[in-house]
Amino acid sequence: MARLMPVRRSDSQFERRLAGLINARERGVLKGGLKGIEREALRVTPEGRISQAPHAQALGSALTHPHITTDYSEALIELVTPPFAETWELQQYLCDVHQFVYRHIGEELLWVTSMPCVLGGDAEIPIANYGSSNIGRMKHVYRVGLGLRYGRVMQAISGVHFNYSFPEQLWPVLQDVCQSKRAAQAFIDDSYFALLRNYRRFGWLILYLFGVSPAVCHSFFAGREPPAELEPRGRGTLIAPYATSLRMSDLGYRNKNQAGVHVSVNSLEEYVRDLSRLISTPNPEYEAHGVEVDGEWRQLNANMLQIENEYYSVIRPKRVAHSGERPTKALMRAGVQYVEMRSLDVGAFDPVGVNQRKLYFLEAFAALCLLRDSPPLSAEESARYEDNHVQVASRGREPGLMLWSGERTLALTDWAAEILDQMQGICELLDAGDDAKPFANALALQRTKLADPAQLPSVRLLDELNSQGVSFFELALGMSRLHRDYFRDLYPPNERRLAELHTEAQDSLAQQQAIEAADRLPFQAFVDSYLAGTLV
Length: 536
Description:
The protein is α+β, with helices and mostly antiparallel strands. It contains 18 helices and 14 strands.
């Protein structure tokens, strides 16, 4: 039987909940949660410049393909797995879909790091194109607006998103342990929002353990002065000496435009309320750009957010939406279905951008955030916790770094050790009946990083720069070539999966044509209907 580990600060509610799951009649109550990955990667030329070629037709339609699409740029490919109950199946799918992509992009490479290749400014980054349909045009115009608001260069940063839903058998057991009288879906919604709050509290740990973007190519700042905190390191390379994830710092996704924006995660209702307010509140700076000027659409609207997805957060509550349905409408219709963890850098040393040990850890970390006490957060508390994420992203390896822990400041290393200790019982519960103990082993690996920061991937990348005597660009280009060769040489290929992906690609092209043929509304009316939530 799994045992409860002592914690350094008492959380009796957590201990009671974990004990209730350990003693539940139904064994493996935490096992079998569904997990999926969204991996982004820039397509680059063999010389390492961002590709100007369109998304390959052999990969299917970026509008309608369920697993191979594009993100901001036509050159920013996004690979989306189906949900899997087994981590190894997820990893295998990622491997297969990478191999399929490499069969159809000629001599191009998938860039292996979150921070981009050599860039020649915004003009060199092509915005994704989704065809002539209303929904395709709307996706394109939304990205035009992002470029105006935040610059295209920021949108060329890549990441990995981990989607996770707890197993269905957990909820009635946990509801009984919590002695909750809420309706089933209301209890599930409350539980997921408790997880969201605790991810704001503890999610900085993901940046510390897995961040791998402490360096950036100097061209990222083309036409502007690099921040003073970045130091030159060899040819064309800038580093933040103690950074873990520049992608998640003020230089990356945390931008000044949204720095003061607050969206409550105290309940589903408050979350939807705050997002809806931002989508309907005009922004004078964006109004100055105009919306449709001389027949050219520059953005979907001039409000604080064009649509929900523009709000950047480290984690989101999600529900699979119907065609044309806004994310908040889907959440209000049927509640939270899963969460999307968005803090992960692309694993530069992993051919598919992530590895199984990381996925095991993230699953256990999600359970910790679910089970720990999670009182409501004020706007001020949220801001202070979010600042922890920024501090860890930009200087997480700084000796003696202190973080705000709710009532006082606490050394990062002490707080991290406490969190990892609390995960021990969860990992043992997840490992029950599995002699390989993958969750406990994944946790042990993270403990070695805490004991020896030289094991952190951010340090490993800087060590590679030093030992090879190359620039960030040269290192990333060389690694991109190695990963391409890995997939090209992988044998035997999964021909059944590759055939399925080929069929999906052909089907998606036909689906896009059908959508374009079926359009009847003028584009303005379509956008108005979508934003009003009346398309479905």
